[in-house]
């Protein structure tokens, strides 16, 4: 933006000591006289010769600005192409992953709202009725921390999210008995807070 605005470039280049660039700006004018006027050129009242130099500076500034923008866009495009070409994930699998992530996010919002409403209702009922609260299952702090970490896809594990990884690893370690999309067996006593993982089981 500073290059496209031209003002900063004018101030910077009028104070330069590069002989070749000074000749480029001064043209047929005496280089000694022109060099003396260059440093104060942006502040002087524009005359015909000074205006010509300023136009040249502004044109150079905008050209450099657009070249910089184009080079950044091109480098980003090349990086994206290289990342896609060297990615261990195929296009269809990546498409499925994005669909899964979107669906999981939508369901997470839905189940979080539902569970929070049930927990709030239980607490308020216990408070106003002055009776012991009913039992309700909710994920532990450790579980929330695990599913909140940054996730990177691995071709070895084939998990599509931190929740997917947490559910599968918890099942493999017998930390909780839940039905799994990877296992062929069934599970009993599904915790209420984690029942949304297996829609088939809930159905």
TrEMBL record:
Keyword Hydrolase: no
Residues that span the membrane, as ranges: 63-83
GO biological process: ATP export
InterPro entries, per the entry: CALHM (IPR029569)
CC per GO annotation: plasma membrane
Topology within the bilayer: Multi-pass membrane protein
Subcellular location(s) per record: Membrane
Any matching Pfam family: Ca_hom_mod
Keywords noted in UniProt: Ion channel, Ion transport, Membrane, Transmembrane, Transmembrane helix, Transport
Record-level Gene Ontology MF annotations: monoatomic cation channel activity
UniProt family annotation: Belongs to the CALHM family.
The protein's name: Uncharacterized protein
Source organism of the structure: Champsocephalus gunnari
């Amino acid at each position: 933006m500073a290059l496209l605005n031209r003002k900063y470039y004018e101030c910077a280049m009028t104070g330069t000591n590069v002989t070749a660039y000074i000749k480029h700006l001064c043209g047929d004018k005496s280089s000694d006289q022109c060099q003396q006027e260059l440093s104060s050129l942006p502040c002087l009242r524009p005359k015909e010769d000074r205006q010509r130099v300023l136009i040249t500076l502004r044109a150079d500034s905008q050209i450099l600005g657009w070249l910089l923008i184009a080079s950044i866009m091109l480098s980003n495009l090349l990086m994206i192409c290289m990342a896609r070409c060297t990615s261990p994930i195929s296009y269809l699998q990546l498409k499925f992953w994005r669909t899964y992530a979107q669906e999981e996010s939508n369901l997470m919002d839905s189940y979080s709202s539902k569970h929070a409403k049930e927990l709030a209702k239980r607490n308020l009922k216990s408070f106003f009725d002055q009776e012991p609260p009913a039992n309700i299952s909710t994920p532990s702090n450790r579980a929330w921390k695990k599913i909140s970490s940054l996730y990177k896809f691995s071709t070895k594990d084939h998990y599509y999210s931190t929740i997917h990884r947490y559910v599968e690893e918890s099942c493999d370690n017998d930390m909780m008995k839940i039905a799994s999309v990877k296992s062929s067996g069934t599970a009993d006593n599904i915790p209420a807070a984690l029942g949304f993982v297996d829609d088939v089981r809930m159905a």
